[in-house]
Amino acid sequence: xxxxxxxxxxxxxxxxxxxxxxxxxxxxxxxxxxxxxxxxxxxxxxxxxxxxxxxxxxxxxxxxxxxxxxxxxxxxxxxxxxxxxxxxxxxxxxxxxxxxxxxxxxxxxxxxxxxxxxxxxxxxxxxxxxxxxxxxxxxxxxxxxxxxxxxxxxxxxxxxxxxxxxxxxxxxxxxxxxxxxxxxxxxxxxxxxxxxxxxxxxxxxxxxxxxxxxxxxxxxxxxxxxxxxxxxxxxxxxxxxxxxxxxxxxxxxxxxxxxxxxxxxxxxxxxxxxxxxxxxxxxxxxxxxxxxxxxxxxxxxxxxxxxxxxxxxxxxxxxxxxxxxxxxxxxxxxxxxxxxxxxxxxxxxxxxxxxxxxxxxxxxxxxxxxxxxxxxxxxxxxxxxxxxxxxxxxxxxxxxxxxxxxxxxxxxxxxxxxxxxxxxxxxxxxxxxxxxxxxxxxxxxxxxxxxxxxxxxxxxxxxxxxxxxxxxxxxxxxxxxxxxxxxxxxxxxxxxxxxxxxxxxxxxxxxxxxxxxxxxxxxxxxxxxxxxxxxxxxxxxxxxxxxxxxxxxxxxxxxxxxxxxxxxxxxxxxxxxxxxxxxxxxxxxxxxxxxxxxxxxxxxxxxxxxxxxxxxxxxxxxxxxxxxxxxxxxxxxxxxxxxxxxxxxxxxxxxxxxxxxxxxxxxxxxxxxxxxxxxxxxxxxxxxxxxxxxxxxxxxxxxxxxxxxxxxxxxxxxxxxxxxxxxxxxxxxxxxxxxxxxxxxxxxxxxxxxxxxxxxxxxxxxxxxxxxxxxxxxxxxxxxxxxxxxxxxxxxxxxxxxxxxxxxxxxxxxx
Length: 815
Ligand SMILES: NC(=O)C1=CN([C@@H]2O[C@H](COP(=O)(O)OP(=O)(O)OC[C@H]3O[C@@H](n4cnc5c(N)ncnc54)[C@H](O)[C@@H]3O)[C@@H](O)[C@H]2O)C=CC1
Ligand SMILES: N[C@@H](CC=O)C(=O)O
Ligand code: NA
Prior knowledge:
With 815 residues, the protein is an alpha/beta fold. The protein has 28 helices and 29 strands. It has an eight-stranded mixed sheet, with helices on both faces.
């Protein structure tokens, strides 16, 4: 036999009641179930409200009518006209009784807990009676059961304690003489020995179901609600939360203790004691298998089962020498709080015993402080104890799962995820059961923290990177196209979800925490974006407080660079193809590295040198593995390489430069390439990464241009000058050709000195054979001494550069 419990939403409308009855009918084909029902959704709240109104002497007739209508509407929809009257009459009788009670409250202006319980009982009575009657159309033997008659409690109105022995007998007895019927039992209500109605407190209808299930040794208790069972985290906060198939009782208790509102743990106790499985199912998605809560759970591969949280918590800290070695201090403290019904959510005590920190609901703080000040007056006056300190605006996050007990490194994973995302932990507690690790953090960090921790534990299931991209030019645009195309692959094969959560350029900016649609980003940005303001872009990115955040700088501007420090401080990683940051003052270059390290985030700039070619990475690997770099020789200007590879035969210099620009090889300002500045920046960054403290002026550069070109004030004037100096370039070209040589602009780093020179090389030179925008770099090191390590390939262009930025992005957080 099974017990099926349906909550408020499941009896909340005609449509839902039809679904409910279908489910009951289905179950009846196996065996008659016991059906426990709640009041229609919203009714219990209305009853509470009316009771309070009556107490204040305010009229409540309108609300009463509303409750009547709510039920009548269902009756009209679900019953044929001929069958409606008896149900209308019964509901009318219930509501008349209720009105009399409310009238009495109104006359006396007094609302006792006893009367309140009586008032509340009408919600379950009306709903259950109504549903049991509607059921007659489909089921030949439904029986309305006033459940209060079978659950016996003490006199503690509002939250009565059940007399389990008597209750078990009554239920068994009643059931055995009515086994041939489908019982529709009112949830939540009970009665005391004087037959006065009591209520079972929060989660009362679930409790009713558990009590009946336990008394009758049910095969299973089904809790039908409006969500897909228990999930790994609150789905409103964590989009990637997913339903759990199975949980142990303890795990369910721990998970629901902090927040998961699906069931209320104490209600499960009767089922727990009898080892009766509990299944949480979804009325609106009956195909969902449900979350099973039982004692014999299958071993699971998941390190934790879920993350729960409380978003409003305060902590009280007590410290003082008077506590050291004083046995019984915490006993006194916590029995005091428990006596006064203050629920202590979490406790931590330092091992020096010098301080105790505990968390309570913010509404309990004032009372708790008063109680403490009274109880410990002597200690406080003698300064053995400092005044209690209070901290508000905090939240609790707890990871829960029995597997934690057997898996080392669980807390490491938790704290790594929090630390990497810059979340400050105020207090920590681990249940001695090791089923639960709880941390107290700032309330504003909660959503970010839960998402980061969810990623960390279910990662290997799915990891998200939230990226904010500045610059939508040549590189930025291409990156979006590549991301869009690759996203499904990454999600499927690498369990990685990359979301572009912000885009900005000099004109507009737009944000979306769910990720912008990359097939329409341009229209979105232009039509719905707000006016761009760099500081605001950064502020907004920080304010969104998303986990695993990456700032991507695809501009060629100094402006974003001024924010890098601030971005690192806010534990956001940076990926950039913009060389302006790393090639300015050495102190700044160094400060970025230090800040990224200090804040535990990544700073990747592979495309600063040789676009997507693995140069920065290779150098780093060589150095980290203890190799010594003795010489670097390189061609690192894709533009100049292209020019020298194509400025042949009839080709003109000016036209060739133009082609390089059209192919996307040049800097936004091509003068930066031709005057050697861009190459200089790359040599400088390489030299610094190789461990040399150099400034821009330390890099010696040969000019390949005549002075007039170098001094051209605008790009247009620059091109005019190139055209005017055609003869100069022709001479250069022919000189090389006459000697069977080619022109190469080559950088060299040796003995801590960097220089870039124009050379003519013959076919024996390793840099002779190049084409397109090829870059080449050769590392001579202690280990690669006679035959250097060489990296060669296209070193400019939107595709290869965006791809390099892309690779950097997906490496964030990997190390
Ligand atoms: N073209 C190539 O092969 C390679 C380029 N790079 C680097 O890529 C970067 C971007 O180059 P392109 O896409 O060609 O440039 P671009 O001129 O086409 O685009 C630059 C973008 O940055 C935006 N921007 C500029 N200043 C800004 C600011 N202060 N605030 C917000 N947005 C701003 C612009 O609105 C534009 O959308 C440059 O730093 C370049 O050195 C790096 C390696 C190779
Ligand atoms: N403009 C640059 C592009 C890469 O940084 C070049 O020509 O090399
Ligand atoms: Na590179």
